[in-house]
Design goal:
about 350 residues, alpha/beta, eight-stranded mixed beta sheet, six-stranded parallel beta sheet, 12 helices, 14 strands
């Protein structure tokens, strides 16, 4: 099997990527990591990984893929730099800070012949993968309604990091930085969004951006989905529920692995349940989380096939964010996909901050 030389830049959430890559030695060769913090570089060296201070030095090691895990406001420039260096890119969420930025990355892909794989690792869970298989086989019928609940807790220590909780550094709040994974699952398993009515509020923390939000999302097929988010919950849970014509599904409540089992599947008839059992007989889910997404991304890069998650997926996720903020500020529903001349396509930041960028 062809090994790809990979490096990780940013050792915050990137530490978890490093661990996933070290467990994927058959397909990736982790040749180095980059972080400006000496203590983080020292931790990497303890694991036997070469550590350098920045992306420039990391690219000099001769990579096939760079895995970007830096603060969101750095992503676009680092992605373009890597593509232009002839390297494929994996990048943590949120990918970039506007829908127009996704379009610019698509242009950079076309120009360089390299590709960008946004991270949405919640899709790689046995429960979510099982439901996706049932949907693709046409066994669930149409979606009627669905709900998403991201009930997490964040406090002062989390927001002591200077760039967090600010429009300039984090580019948004709970719906961008925390619930975006669960909302990606909602769209992936529920259907493409056609309209959003959203509200946001800051009710828990002393930060610039929202820590509480709710929305009603209408799919292109006419299903009604709801999403609720808070960072003030006493206990942390994430939960999805779907009601299809032939099947009702509830996810696990694991806050950071809601795609993993146990998921509950309730069929409307014994005949439908029997067809599903036949479809799933002998089926084995892929590896979970980052390890699963990185493995499938490796296969796509080596084989030249479509990426398991690509820029179109990131564009949908960020259009949802953009429309949610827009609806919250205007009180009006917002249609999706966004028109090319939509006033927020280049930025969802508050109007008074857009001139500062």
């Amino acid at each position: 099997m062809t090994k790809l030389r990979i490096g990780v830049v940013g050792l915050g959430i990137g530490r978890l990527h490093v661990l996933a890559l070290l467990r994927s030695k058959g397909i990736y060769d982790l040749v180095g990591v980059a972080d400006p913090t000496p203590a983080r570089r020292a931790q990497a060296r303890i694991l036997g990984v070469k550590a350098v201070p920045d992306l420039d030095a990391l690219l000099d090691l001769g990579l096939d893929v760079v895995d970007i895990c830096t603060p969101p406001h750095l992503h676009e420039a680092q992605i373009v730099q890597s593509l232009e260096a002839g390297v494929d890119v994996v990048c943590e969420k949120p990918l970039v800070d506007s829908v127009a930025a996704v379009d610019r990355l698509a242009e950079a892909e076309a120009r360089t012949g390299r590709r960008v794989a946004p991270i949405f690792q919640y899709r790689w869970g046995a429960g979510a993968q099982k439901l996706r298989r049932l949907i693709d086989a046409g066994l669930t019928g149409r979606l009627l309604t669905a709900t998403s609940e991201t009930m997490w807790r964040r406090g002062e220590a989390y927001y002591a990091v200077p760039w967090r909780g600010t429009w300039e550094g984090e580019r948004g709040g709970a719906i961008l930085s925390h619930a975006i994974h669960l909302h990606d699952l909602l769209m992936w398993l529920g259907g493409a969004p056609a309209e959003i009515v959203g509200r946001t509020a800051t009710r828990v923390l002393d930060i610039e951006v929202e820590d509480t939000a709710a929305a009603v999302i209408t799919t292109q097929d006419g299903a009604l989905m709801t999403a609720a988010v808070t960072l003030g919950a006493a206990t942390e849970t994430s939960r999805l529920r779907f009601v299809y014509e032939h099947l009702t599904v509830e996810s696990s409540q694991s806050p950071y692995k809601p795609g993993a089992e146990p998921w509950q599947f309730h069929w409307t008839s014994k005949a439908a349940a029997k067809r599903a059992a036949g479809l799933l007989q002998g089926w084995e889910p892929p590896a979970s989380g980052w390890k699963g997404q990185l493995a499938d991304t490796h296969a796509a890069i080596v084989g030249g096939g479509p990426l398991p998650v690509g820029l179109d997926d990131a564009r949908t996720a960020l259009e949802v964010v953009t429309a949610w903020y827009r609806s919250s500020r205007t009180g009006e529903p917002v249609a999706l996909p966004l028109a090319d001349d939509h006033p927020d396509r280049h930025s969802w930041l508050p109007e008074e901050l857009r001139g500062e960028r």
